[in-house]
UniProtKB/TrEMBL annotation:
GO terms for biological process: methylation. Pfam families: Meth_synt_1 (PF08267), Meth_synt_2 (PF01717). Residues 437-759 form the Cobalamin-independent methionine synthase MetE C-terminal/archaeal domain. Its cofactor is Zn(2+). It comes from Microbacterium aurugineum. Its EC number is 2.1.1.14. GO terms for molecular function: 5-methyltetrahydropteroyltriglutamate-homocysteine S-methyltransferase activity. This is 5-methyltetrahydropteroyltriglutamate--homocysteine S-methyltransferase. It comes from the Bacteria. Pathway: Amino-acid biosynthesis; L-methionine biosynthesis via de novo pathway; L-methionine from L-homocysteine (MetE route): step 1/1.
Length: 765
């Protein structure tokens, strides 16, 4: 067995420095390039990634370079590799039983009435994976040799790389029971049937020259999955026992990042594998455990979750602490670098001083290289780099703007976190004169090609600000008049000025920076460009007031002001790590609080503060959840706590698993909460009725994720279902989410049907 390399990374961004993967894959979907061309483009992308990693210091022949490419998603890759595809896609297999690229994309994206796999968040990151569907009928068989071919592709270039695949326990633990499975079926019960396919895969990888393989098993650290940690570690022990004893295999590295390994560590230490990756950013140095002799501990000390350069000296300290456990130690990132952009040196417009505090993927690879050198040659050999990192950190902590006296001096009292009682507000809000079952939308209207083009031209300086402003005003005016024509009750301005619900605020608040190329994969071919929250947050000037006031001036109906909440702003940005998140959230909240006061002063009586990410940031460990829920709810309450009793505060959450965070949602104390419900055919209203919720609630009646126009009868039946379960005085009528990804044709038709359905239901209540 060859030794594990001194330094490595657990994975690298797959999208390409200029989003080459997105462009190629979308061109293939649109039929502009064929499969061969797609293969060629992505082969080049993989080749340049390997070369880049070698240039940055990872060894060419020691398995340091991870083979972590994916066309769409690594969980789908694993599912397809082992043949775990739902029955509805079975006919897409080739004659030899393999699942080719077109079939792979169809499973990811659906086709006609064949629904795609569901998508959900990958642990506590902003990456979304596809949820495998597994039942008693699933036949596991090696159905794709893509990973094997990538290993040989690397070998042809003279490299020995380390294939990475989602491990068997995580694959099953993240899966849901297939449609064909009986009630209560647990995919994890198929573990023993699945393992032989992994054994076969390991043999193929070994035959192709792989000396190490990485099995990603992050499910082992999650307390948010249906399986308990005890069940998961039990499954891991069984799985690794089988895989470890496989006759022909590469050496095995098991990586279970995103949280502390806790009681799983001794299980991994005892397993017949060769290396264990430990997330030392989210977790601590484990206690000594039996079975570590001869193993390698891969210390994840370079943070894969964020873009800070961090404290390299402290990182090295932790590697030394890890060494005390008696195993060999290597340096690594805490997670795959999938969660960070490619290269900070691409950012020509960022402030230089800010850049000196940052490390994107490429810089993190270099940091690993430094730490690896320190491990092999000794701390003294990297003293200069450690000092430089400490100096950058000290510079950051002392820099103007990172700590802003005016922000920090704003004293908070407990009263700032509460409004008057709901009953009193309800009475005060009667003055709004809203009808029963008020009709509204979630905020955005279609972001048409015209809007995107105008924004791009304005950003490039091709049209003057006044012209762009005029264009947006015309857009707002047309959105307002459309809503009046349709007969909605509470109007919105449509958000045409926003590129993105977080970046827009980041661009208008102090303490944030936005990048030019800082794309991070969100799912499939989609990437987002998170802003960097680096300093104390404050609001130099009102942000949304001009737009809302203008829209309000065009109508006698109520115009709903539209803000993004503090938790969502944090969740979708790279956030400073030098103070508790709750403190940062409160700074954002105070800026929003001022914005709300200004909106009120401008005559806006209904204000929505979106918090679609509230659920997303929920920590994986149960013990961490109460503290999170406390600060997140508090920040929302601080943002909205200054609103007058007569001001109606709305919030919007993008999901329907209401039950999980019901206490938090209740504690937000918004007057009206809109949620997704159409996709689950209003199942959520039964949950709501069951747990009891007495504020306003708008369960979505229109699934905006699909271009389909719901009929009047469909919407009517959804509404009648809601009316049966929930007192009418609480109910609102709205779509599931914003309309920005939809076109005008289906939006108008859908809203018209919603209005008609509401009219019919109103007659009977
Ligand atoms: N107000 C936002 C919109 O309508 C909300 C989007 C969201 O919840 N993600 O686009
Ligand atoms: Zn939403």
């Amino acid at each position: 067995m060859t030794a594990f390399p001194e330094g490595t990374i657990l994975g690298y961004p797959r999208i390409g420095r200029r989003r080459e993967l997105k462009k190629a894959v979308e061109a293939f979907w649109a039929g502009r390039i064929d499969e061969e061309e797609l293969e060629r483009t992505t082969r080049e992308l993989r080749a340049s990634t390997r070369e880049r990693l070698a240039e940055l210091g990872l060894g060419r022949k020691d398995s340091a370079i991870p083979e972590s490419f994916s066309y769409y998603d690594q969980v789908l890759d694993a599912a397809v590799t082992v043949g775990a595809i739902p029955t509805r896609f079975e006919d897409l297999r080739g004659a030899d039983g393999t699942v080719g690229l077109p079939a792979y994309f169809t499973i990811a994206r659906g086709e006609g009435d064949r629904a795609p796999l569901e998508m959900t968040k990958w642990f506590d990151s902003n990456y979304h994976y596809l949820v495998p569907e597994i039942g008693p009928e699933t036949v596991f068989s090696l159905s794709s040799d893509r990973l094997v071919r990538q290993v040989s592709e690397a070998a042809e270039a003279g490299l020995v790389t380390r294939p990475v695949i989602v491990g068997p326990v995580t694959l099953l633990a993240l899966a849901k029971a297939s449609d064909d499975a009986p009630q209560g079926f647990d995919p994890l019960s198929r573990l023993d049937d699945l393992l032989p396919v992994y054994v076969e895969l390991l043999a193929r990888l070994r035959a192709e020259g792989a000396e190490w393989v990485q099995l990603d098993e992050p499910a082992l650290v999650s307390e948010s999955l249906p399986a308990s940690v005890a069940q998961l570690s039990d499954a891991a022990a069984r799985a690794l026992d089988v895989l470890g004893r496989a006759p022909e295999r590469p050496a095995i590295l098991v990586a279970a990042p995103y949280a502390d390994l806790g009681e799983v560590f001794p299980v991994l230490a005892a397993a017949p594998i060769e290396a264990i990756a430990v997330d030392l950013v989210r977790g601590g140095v484990p206690a000594p455990a039996a079975g570590l002799e001869g193993k390698t501990l891969v210390g994840g000390v370079v943070d894969g979750h964020n873009i800070w350069r961090g404290d390299l000296a402290h990182a090295f300290d932790r590697l030394e602490a890890l060494r005390a456990l008696g195993a060999a130690v290597s340096a690594s990132t805490s997670t795959s670098l999938l969660h960070v952009p490619h290269d900070v040196t691409d950012e020509s417009r960022l402030d230089e001083r800010l850049v000196s505090w940052l490390a994107f993927a490429d810089q993190k690879v270099q940091q690993v290289g430094v730490l690896a050198r320190g491990l092999s040659v000794g701390r003294a050999s990297i003293a200069a780099e450690l000092d430089a990192s400490s100096a950058a950190l000290a510079d950051r902590l002392a820099a103007p703007g990172v700590r802003d006296g005016a922000v920090r001096d704003r004293a908070l009292s407990t009263a700032d976190f509460s409004r008057v009682g709901y009953e009193e507000r309800e009475t005060a809000q009667e003055a709004l004169g809203l009808p029963v079952l008020p009709l509204t939308t979630i905020g955005s209207f279609p972001q048409t090609g015209d809007i995107r083009r105008a924004r791009a031209r304005f950003t490039r300086g091709e049209i003057p600000a006044e012209d762009y402003d005029d264009f947006l005003r015309r857009e707002v005016a047309s959105v307002v008049s459309l809503q009046e024509d349709l007969g909605l009750d509470v109007l919105v301005h449509g958000e045409p000025e926003r590129n993105d619900m977080v970046q827009y605020f980041a661009e208008n608040l102090d303490g944030f920076a936005v990048t030019e190329h800082g794309w991070v994969q969100s799912y499939g071919s989609r990437a987002t460009r998170p802003s960097i929250l680096w300093g104390d947050v404050s609001r130099p000037a009102p942000i949304t007031v001009g737009w809302s006031a203008y829209a309000q001036s065009l109508t006698s109906k109520h115009l709903k002001g539209m803000l993004t909440g503090p938790v969502t702003i944090l969740a979708w940005s790279f956030v400073r790590d030098d103070q508790p998140l709750g403190e940062t959230a409160n700074q954002v909240a105070l800026a929003l609080r001022d914005e709300i006061a200004d909106l009120e002063a401008a005559g806006i009586a209904i204000i929505q503060v979106d918090e679609p990410a509230l659920r997303e940031l929920l920590p994986l460990k149960k013990a961490d959840q109460p503290a999170y829920l406390r600060w997140s709810v508090d920040s929302f309450r601080l943002a909205t706590g200054g609103a007058a009793a007569g001001t109606q505060v709305h919030t919007h959450l993008c999901y329907s698993e209401f039950g999980v965070v019901i206490d938090a949602i209740r504690a937000l104390d918004a007057d009206v909460t809109s949620i997704e419900a159409a996709r689950s055919r209003m199942e959520v209203v039964a949950d709501i009725a069951e747990v009891g919720f007495d504020h306003g609630i708008g369960p979505g009646v229109y699934d905006i994720h699909s271009p389909r126009v719901p009929t009047v009868e469909e919407v009517e039946s959804l509404l009648r279902r809601a009316v049966e379960e929930i007192p009418t005085r609480q109910l609102w009528v709205n779509p599931d989410c914003g309309l920005k990804t939809r076109g005008y044709e289906e939006t108008t038709a859908s809203l018209r049907n919603i209005v008609e359905a509401t009219r019919r239901v109103r007659e009977d209540v």
